[in-house]
Amino acid sequence: MNDSLDILIFGAHADDAEIGMGATIAKHTAAGLKVGICDLTYAEMSSNGTVELRQAEAEEAARLLGLSLRTNLGLPDRGLFMSPDYIERITMEIRKYKPRIVFAPYWQDRHPDHIACSQLIQEAVFNAKLRRYLPEMEAVQVQQLYFYFINDVYEADVMVDVSSWYDAKIAALSAYRSQFVTGQDTVSTPLNQGYVERVEARDRLMGQKRMITYAEGFVSKLPLLVDRFA
Q1: What is the domain range of residue 126?
Q2: Is residue 229 part of a domain?
Q3: What was the pLDDT predicted at 183?
Q4: Across-strand partners of 39?
Q5: Is residue 226 part of a domain?
C-alpha cells in the first residue's frame, strides 16, 4: 500500500491547520490530491473540552475536509521544545508519508506552541533529506515548505483563492464546538469570543488584495520558482 501524500500539514494542536488553511485543504482534496494532517499534541492543556472530545472533533473535521489521514504524535501540550527526540519523531513522519509539500505554522505567533511547532518542523524537514540521519529509513527531499498563519498575520508571499471552498472551512471549524462555542461548562477564552468570525474577516481582507472573496495566505523562506512570466 502506498502511503505517500501530496501534502502533509503539521500543527501543534487539532484545529491549527483548519484555522490557517482549512479552505486550501478542501480545495486540494476536491482536486484529488492526498492531504494529511499531523497534530503534534492532544491539546490536553486546553481550557475547554477533553482529550477524547477534541480527538472526536478532529476526526470529524478531517472527514469534512476529505483528508487522506490524520495522525497525532502525542507530544506534550505546552511542552514542545527543541528536543532531538521530537525532531526524530517528526522526521520519521515525513519519511513515512513522503510528502511533496509540507506546511507548518508561521514562526511568529502569540501562542508559544505554534512557534515551537514551526521550529521543530523546519528542523525535521532539513533532517529528512540527510541519508545518514536515521539511515534505517529512506531519506526524503521535501520539495517545498510553506508556513500558514494562525493567530497573527504577516505579509504573505503567496495566496490561494478559496472563495468556492470557504464553506468547507467554516464547517470544519464548526466541528470544534468545545473550542469555539460557549456552553454551560465552558470558560471564556479568546477562541469562543468571536474567534471564527475574526478568522473569516482576516481571510476576506486577504482576498481583497486581489479582488476575490476569500483567500488564505502563506509564506516561503525560499524564493518561489516560476518557469516564466506569462
Answers
A1: 7-219
A2: no
A3: 83
A4: 11, 72
A5: no
Q: Which residue, among 8, 42, 20, 31, has the nearest Cα to 172 in the 3D structure? A: 20
* In-domain check, residue 167: yes
Indicate which CATH number applies to the domain containing 99.
Answer: 3.40.50.10320
Q: For the chain, what is the domain count?
A: 1
Residue 230 lies in a domain: no
Place of cell 470544534: 176
pLDDT in tens, 177-220: 999 999 878 999 999 999 999 999 999 999 999 999 999 999 99
Does this model's pTM top 0.85? My answer is: yes
pLDDT of residue 1: 47
Overall average pLDDT of the 92-112 stretch? 98
Q: What is the pLDDT of residue 43?
A: 96
